[in-house]
Each structure stands twice: as structure tokens, then as C-alpha cells.
Specification:
The chain is of the alpha/beta class and 336 residues long. The protein contains 8 helices and 13 strands. The longest helix has 14 residues, at 136-149. It is globular and about 65 Å long. It starts with 18 loop residues before the first helix and ends in a 9-residue tail after the last helix.
């Protein structure tokens, strides 16, 4: 049945107002000056678990933040229900400026970077001395990401009861990286945990490592009240363990103001996002020598001024070798 007559005027036709047409357009956003401060502990399918004072609060990101995402370690501002009671939800309206960022890409040719952890003070790179075998190229890549993101690196070598650490430590000796060597027996007795804690107290430390190296086992020993399921299995063919940590999680160290952040096991660590020119900042003894470098020098080319600087005795040649080895990690895959 015809709803209108044969000759209708457009003004006679009823139209449903569109949502976009009824929403006022403005660039002015509320300041939320009364918002509460919180720390993001973990992220799971759009829901963020935050610590607000002494309460654990579930929250979601406010629409006004757009595509900007909060990650574990972010300091955020929240409004809404912050009682922490079941089935309540607060809203994250602001992500504070980050002091450091650990980022990675899936592969070196992947342009999409992923922020893994924010505001960490140091990066604990956990690697087993055997079962599975160490992967120095992956360690190098983690070091580059740490230097690029403003984190201090820490080497944690596990399973020293299966293989000695000397060869691997010699490889990184010229980088002056602090390290801790642990064994399974020492973890069980608590001796290794005490040595690791000395490096963690008062700091926010992100733990990374490929599967099967004992990373989550170590985190469980450090924070026993928040135990996470460990792998307990390494594939005999591939030498890789099963992933047991599926999302990053920040955990407080008991009797300390330090935090540990357990992250999922790594298969690869892409460095597409890294600007090689920033890596030199992690080598303060070499950085003055770059003043004579040509513009946009990669510090690994024929006209690099660092060669003459080191030859004149201003720095140890081993340090220049270490710098160039790290810079070359973007050109090599982890298994090379």
C-alpha cells in the first residue's frame, strides 16, 4: 500500500535521524582532573586489569582515546566504578607519558610494531645454557630492543647444572651487562632467587625469553603467591618448549617495591621498528667518536669515524665490535 500520495513533497516524508547527525562535533575533550591513577597489570580481550591504590579494578579503554592502546606497565587515569567489586567496570580516559617502551615486530619486514611492555626499568633476558640450546642472535635482538626502548639489560642464565656459562658470558663480556647464573638446585634451595632479587629490588623488570628456558619457573620462584603454570616440556625434535604464558602480567615482589612482568615466550623478535642510530646511545664510551661521522652514518661503513677514534686509543676495539655485531642483527635471522 502506498504510504504517501502521488504528489508528495520531500518535507512530508519522515526520515529517521542518523546517529552521526545528532552527535555534536567538537575537539574539546574533558580533562578528567578528578580521575584516579592506576597501573595496568594485564590485558585480556579489551579488558584491562588495573591496580588502583590497593584495589584491583577491571576497566576498558574510553572511546575518546581512539586507536591508542594501553599495555602492561602503563600508568593510566581512570573514572567510573573503582570499587573493585565483581561485575563492575571503570573507564581508562588517559594514558600517561611513558618513560620506556619495549617493542617488537613479528619479522624484520613487518611494518607493524607491537608494544609489549611500558615503563619498565630493565629487561631480564632469560636463556638456558642447555635444553634448549642458547640462541645468541635472539639475545642480541633483545639487547637492541632494550637499548632502543630505554631499558637496562640483565642476562639471566638458567640450567647451569646442564652446561657451563663461560662461553656465553665471554660473548657478552665486552658489553658490561650484569648477569645472574642459576641452576635448578639453586632455584629449589632459594639461593638463585636471592641473587636474582638483588637485581630486581626497587625496579620494574620485564622478563623475556624463548619457550622452555625456565622463565616462568623463575618468575614463580620470585613471586610464589602468584604462581603461573610452567612448561615442564621441551620438544626433543625442535628444542622448543610449549607456550604457557599467553599474556603479559605484572606481579609485585613481596617485601619490595619492585615489580616483575612475565611475558609470553618468544619465537622471534623482529626489529623493523628500530632506528639503528639510537643503538649508539647505549655505548657512551663510543658516542663521542661519532662526531666526525658522515651524515646518516650507520657506524658500520667505510667512512665511519669510529674506526679512527678507536685506533687512537679512545675506546676498546672489542666495544666497537660489539656495537657492530648488535647493529648487524637486523640483517640476520635469529638462527643464523
Amino acid at each position: 500500500m502506498r504510504r504517501y500520495g502521488k504528489h508528495t513533497d520531500e518535507d512530508d516524508i519522515r526520515t529517521r535521524p542518523g546517529r552521526r547527525n545528532t552527535r555534536p562535533r567538537t575537539n574539546i575533550r574533558p580533562k578528567h582532573e578528578d580521575a584516579a591513577e592506576g597501573l595496568v597489570l594485564t590485558v585480556d580481550r579489551g579488558r584491562l586489569t588495573c591496580l588502583v591504590e590497593d584495589r584491583v579494578v577491571m576497566a576498558m579503554k574510553a572511546r575518546e582515546l581512539g586507536r591508542k592502546a594501553a599495555v602492561v606497565g602503563d600508568r593510566v587515569a581512570l573514572v567510573g566504578d573503582m570499587s573493585g567489586k565483581k561485575d563492575t567496570l571503570a573507564r581508562i580516559v588517559r594514558i600517561e607519558e611513558r618513560t620506556s617502551v619495549l617493542r617488537r615486530t613479528a619479522d624484520d619486514d613487518d611494518p607493524f610494531e607491537r608494544v609489549v611492555v611500558a615503563n619498565a626499568d630493565q629487561l631480564a633476558i632469560v636463556t638456558a645454557l642447555a635444553d634448549p640450546e642458547p640462541r645468541p642472535r635472539l639475545i642480541d635482538r633483545c639487547l637492541v630492543a632494550a637499548y632502543d626502548g630505554g631499558l637496562d639489560p640483565l642476562l639471566v642464565l638458567t640450567k647451569s647444572d646442564l652446561a657451563p656459562p663461560d662461553k656465553l658470558l665471554e660473548l657478552y663480556g665486552d658489553l658490561d651487562i650484569p648477569y645472574v647464573v642459576t641452576s635448578r638446585a639453586e632455584l629449589d634451595s632459594g639461593a638463585a632467587v636471592a641473587r636474582v632479587r638483588e637485581q630486581l629490588d626497587g625496579k620494574i623488570t620485564a622478563f623475556v625469553g624463548h619457550s622452555g628456558v625456565g622463565k616462568t619457573t623463575l618468575v614463580n620462584a620470585l613471586v610464589p603467591e602468584e604462581r603461573r603454570r610452567t612448561t615442564g616440556h621441551v620438544n626433543a625434535v625442535t628444542g622448543r618448549g610449549r607456550h604457557t604464558t599467553t599474556s603479559a602480567l605484572a606481579l609485585p615482589l613481596s617485601d619490595s617495591d619492585g615489580w616483575v612482568i612475565d611475558t609470553p615466550g618468544l619465537r622471534s623478535f623482529g626489529l623493523h621498528h628500530v632506528d639503528p642510530s639510537r643503538v649508539i646511545h647505549a655505548f657512551p664510551d663510543l658516542e663521542p667518536g661519532t662526531e666526525g661521522c658522515p651524515r646518516a652514518c650507520s657506524h658500520d661503513e667505510q667512512d665511519c669515524a669510529l674506526d679512527a677514534w678507536v685506533a687512537e686509543g679512545h675506546a676498546d676495539p672489542a666495544r666497537l665490535y660489539s656495537l657492530r655485531r648488535l647493529l648487524a642483527t637486523r640483517e640476520r635471522k635469529e638462527g643464523d
